């Protein structure tokens, strides 16, 4: 809370520390001053191996958990609860730098077209909401939690003359992101034609995106909306909210956007995080090499 972390981050750290406390209890350690470096390193091994109660964690997830444990012990040592910091020498596991999964622009179009807007019936009210949500996910590169936290005040100044959206990201940091014409039209249609019908069903709610009962749309419901559209578009199993964010960044860079501009749009604290999107696949390397290098292929005599 002192660092201004997002609620989702705090929830993740809470789960990590509860798992650590459970592990210590099973290991016979009931007081923090009794914890040793071996306990902490053994906990890391347990994270990677998993057990009947917990699945094995990937290196990135295990690293986050160890970082939470290291933060806890550093705090306890600073506060005088412990005389030493047993976690200080335990390093988080390294994770492989994987390429983000991104959809092609054709697949993005198929996905967005899978949500239709037809009549003024109740089902089309939800369709207008869903289309606005998906258009904004791809059109702004926002995290799903950022769109769920959007309020009417955040979009009150949005217009064709000033298509700039204010988003609140990790650490409660605000950033301004341009909104393209397609996303702007979808959002305007939802706010004018659909949201009033949803909002009338319950007490006033300031959130932009509402559920069928008029309450704030949850992240889980937004995930379901995206999955259903992906299924209709023939993209089942390939799409998550973060896929849309990856696609946003990848397509910008492929079309010549500067990496530091993309960093600002994504709200990354470091450009290093953004630079992973500049990596290319082996297939892309092979294709460019084959078409661009003058001696990449054998030429037939004429």
From TrEMBL:
<dbReference type="GO" id="GO:0007059">
    <property type="term" value="P:chromosome segregation"/>
</dbReference>
<dbReference type="GO" id="GO:0005737">
    <property type="term" value="C:cytoplasm"/>
</dbReference>
<dbReference type="InterPro" id="IPR050090">
    <property type="entry name" value="Tyrosine_recombinase_XerCD"/>
</dbReference>
<keyword id="KW-0132">Cell division</keyword>
<keyword id="KW-0963">Cytoplasm</keyword>
<keyword id="KW-0229">DNA integration</keyword>
<feature type="domain" description="Core-binding (CB)">
    <location>
        <begin position="1"/>
        <end position="77"/>
    </location>
</feature>
<dbReference type="InterPro" id="IPR002104">
    <property type="entry name" value="Integrase_catalytic"/>
</dbReference>
<protein>
    <recommendedName>
        <fullName>Tyrosine recombinase XerD</fullName>
    </recommendedName>
</protein>
<dbReference type="GO" id="GO:0051301">
    <property type="term" value="P:cell division"/>
</dbReference>
<dbReference type="InterPro" id="IPR010998">
    <property type="entry name" value="Integrase_recombinase_N"/>
</dbReference>
<keyword id="KW-0238">DNA-binding</keyword>
<dbReference type="GO" id="GO:0009009">
    <property type="term" value="F:site-specific recombinase activity"/>
</dbReference>
<dbReference type="InterPro" id="IPR011932">
    <property type="entry name" value="Recomb_XerD"/>
</dbReference>
<dbReference type="InterPro" id="IPR023009">
    <property type="entry name" value="Tyrosine_recombinase_XerC/XerD"/>
</dbReference>
<dbReference type="InterPro" id="IPR013762">
    <property type="entry name" value="Integrase-like_cat_sf"/>
</dbReference>
<feature type="domain" description="Tyr recombinase">
    <location>
        <begin position="98"/>
        <end position="290"/>
    </location>
</feature>
<dbReference type="InterPro" id="IPR011010">
    <property type="entry name" value="DNA_brk_join_enz"/>
</dbReference>
<dbReference type="GO" id="GO:0006310">
    <property type="term" value="P:DNA recombination"/>
</dbReference>
<dbReference type="InterPro" id="IPR004107">
    <property type="entry name" value="Integrase_SAM-like_N"/>
</dbReference>
<keyword id="KW-0131">Cell cycle</keyword>
<keyword id="KW-0233">DNA recombination</keyword>
<keyword id="KW-0159">Chromosome partition</keyword>
<comment type="similarity">
    <text>Belongs to the 'phage' integrase family. XerD subfamily.</text>
</comment>
<dbReference type="InterPro" id="IPR044068">
    <property type="entry name" value="CB"/>
</dbReference>
<dbReference type="Pfam" id="PF02899">
    <property type="entry name" value="Phage_int_SAM_1"/>
</dbReference>
<dbReference type="Pfam" id="PF00589">
    <property type="entry name" value="Phage_integrase"/>
</dbReference>
<dbReference type="GO" id="GO:0003677">
    <property type="term" value="F:DNA binding"/>
</dbReference>
